[in-house]
């Protein structure tokens, strides 16, 4: 499955954690604005990532993750 993450507000934090897996077992999130990565892929229950929205220039940054694959630029 594919998902997008819209722009936030400066200082906003968002944690995504997978609690159930359906279908092929992967979920890819692509933020509209981001720094340092293209997208993040969740594959199993317990996968978790925390994002911080810095501002409208930088966008989302990945500040922590557990068992999540992220694809750097």
Verbal overview:
With 73 residues, the protein is mainly β. 0% of the residues lie in helices and 51% in strands. It is elongated, with a radius of gyration of 12 Å. The chain has strands spanning 2-5, 13-17, 27-31, 37-42, 48-53, 60-66, 69-72.
List its salient traits.
73 residues; mainly beta; 0% helix; elongated
Strand order of the largest sheet: 1-3-4-7
Element-level helix/strand string: EEEEEEE
Number of strands: 7
Structural class: mainly beta
Overall radius of gyration = 12 Å
Shape annotation: elongated
Write the layout of secondary structure elements.
Layout: E1 2-5, E2 13-17, E3 27-31, E4 37-42, E5 48-53, E6 60-66, E7 69-72
Parallel strand pairs: 1-3
Antiparallel strand pairs: 2-5, 3-4, 4-7, 5-6
Write a concise synopsis of the structure shown.
0% of the residues lie in helices and 51% in strands. The protein has 73 residues and is an all-beta fold.
């Amino acid at each position: 499955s594919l998902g997008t993450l819209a722009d936030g507000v400066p200082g906003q934090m968002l944690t995504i954690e997978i609690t159930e897996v359906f279908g092929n077992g992967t979920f890819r999130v692509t933020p509209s604005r981001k720094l340092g990565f293209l997208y993040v892929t969740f594959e199993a229950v317990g996968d978790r990532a925390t994002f911080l929205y810095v501002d409208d220039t930088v966008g989302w940054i990945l500040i922590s993750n557990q068992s999540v694959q992220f694809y750097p630029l």
